[in-house]
User: Fold this.
Amino acid sequence: MTQLSGKIAIITGGSRGIGWGIAARFAREGATVIVASTSPPAKSDRNRIHWHQTNVANRAEVEAMTEFAIDTFGRVDVLVNNAGVQIEKAIADTTDEDWEWLTGVNMRGVFLCCRSVIPVMQKQGGGAIINIGSISANNVDPNMALYNASKGFVH
Assistant:
């Protein structure tokens, strides 16, 4: 028996990097994992890891992600808000498009995913939400101001 046996977990941004590491570990611990990301994982374990194409900055796609979990597995026990993007520019060089993209994924995405799964978790009697932050939330870097602020939001 493993620690997460029988649990259903959604990992946003889980197709690579830290997110893939989280997804793979959750699967090894017995969870059924839904990787919610814009691109499929390079690796897959179809028995334990399922991909759902999701742009976390898009409300309809986030709602579809939650509906997929409920329709397919009947519940959501864990949400890991891991999806994140980074822009390395000074504020004076940052465009409106940069702002919309970064805050859409790093801030709106966390909000939308939480808002989508919280009622499900309340109805089923509980669950866990893990928001992945960064030490950058506490740092001052003139070329990382948007990213730093977005991670401060997560904290």
